[in-house]
Predict the 3D structure of the following.
Amino acid sequence: MQQLRNISVIGLGLLGGSIALAARQRLPGARVIGYSHRASTRAKARDLGVGTEIVDDLATAVGAADLVILATPIFTFEGYFAEIAEHVCPRCIVTDVGSTKVMPHQWAERQLDVRARYVGSHPVAGSEQKGVEFARDDLFYQARCVLTTTQTTDRTAVTPLKTFWSALGCSIQVMDPLEHDRIFANVSHVPHVLAAGLVNASDDGDLKFAGKGFLDSTRIASGPPTVWTDVLMANSENIADGIDRTIGELQKLQKAIRSKARQEIEQLLAAAQEKRSALVKYKIRRKELLS
Amino acid sequence: MQQLRNISVIGLGLLGGSIALAARQRLPGARVIGYSHRASTRAKARDLGVGTEIVDDLATAVGAADLVILATPIFTFEGYFAEIAEHVCPRCIVTDVGSTKVMPHQWAERQLDVRARYVGSHPVAGSEQKGVEFARDDLFYQARCVLTTTQTTDRTAVTPLKTFWSALGCSIQVMDPLEHDRIFANVSHVPHVLAAGLVNASDDGDLKFAGKGFLDSTRIASGPPTVWTDVLMANSENIADGIDRTIGELQKLQKAIRSKARQEIEQLLAAAQEKRSALVKYKIRRKELLS
């Protein structure tokens, strides 16, 4: 199997910074090269010891890489793919850590062509924080990482990439990008829209009385708007459909509440409670959640 | 000011148990009498040292009380008020800890009449757990407690009740029950419906990929369905209106997402982020939330 000795991380925000920190710690002997287009971010990354070296231009960053990981905003991927294609060695593996995967595959196919082997990655980790100063070397520990492949994917790239993410602590699933985007619309992107909608529907004066329940339900609404705008733009149809399904469930509950149909309300709440309780048990069993 | 030396807690679940534990600790010298209609709960409460004594019948529980606190399900209040009215001393203060306040006031007015002075209480504390075994003496520490009064409320009861909740660690606000129910529909009851709706709209297979964001957003959906059914029944109009407002915000976001209106999506997400960030700062300043 191909050894990944030169790893290049493009984009040094929370995710890119954490990948570089974790790779440096978990893959001793590997060169972990970091690049950000912002000089101030590069300076911070150097101070924080993110990666084994931080370089000032993209060509240098990717020129010797066995693996290039794009951790920049989704809608910059196509441009980066085009630029990377000019500089990478043949047989370099290229991936990204975007939260949607259909569009990255399309861009990679268009821009990378045969110069590099592209596989999508989505490490399911992060927080509502933003910036390299929040990077952590344990961000991927016991997280899932979904790899995405299509019929045109060069399969020889999958195993080395699996090994890489496993070394960072991830458990890996491989799936089609279409399936990925449908699933993550439902479990991540729609919940984000709901949290934002709930906050926007709330009156400032009323919010003074909000307790822990409200704060927890809306935590994800504190995520960076630019990052999330990209996600919502890049997976719009699945998300719009998911919002419809959720509105349908809300209207079902609303109808039962308006007509004070005790039995129906209780059935709907009990169904949600049982489903979530089964999920929590599953997550604890898989050690994705502490008991 | 009236001294509350004999405190009676009716209903020994998470809330009642925590009140009895906290009162015993924070009000040395006071008798804290606990009662539950279930023998098994009374036995557990005795084992856990909840209250200074646990008694087997309601008449004994409330006969000598200066303050009776109802911590039973909302729709049992009217029956308890009627029964309590027969046994309490004149000038006893009666309150409840229900999460809705309009209906408890109506029931108290109907059943307690002049035999006791009723003021509503809503200590904004709790968790998705249920039962006396989860009772904690610090549940009310730095929590808010809303007291509700109407034009017919005997005002002499308000100050002793404020003193009681303050001793347990609460900060107190007094308001009208109508205002209370409108506010808490928005910051607590509607979020609960949303969490349940989101879980119910989710596919079991997809949920395996849910991360911390989904779990936090839906934590409140693990609350006890019977307790929450009561809340939704007792505040149905405000909640139905709040669901409408939230659906309106979701549709606004959905429309922007469907039409890929980047600027509008980002504005809506940024508005939510800023509003929540202001709320978090406010809560930290008031020490209701750790920084």
About this structure: Chain B has two domains: 6-175, 180-259. Strands of chain B lie at 6-10, 31-35, 53-54, 67-70, 92-96, 116-118, 120-123, 144-148, 171-175. Chain B has a mean pLDDT of 94.
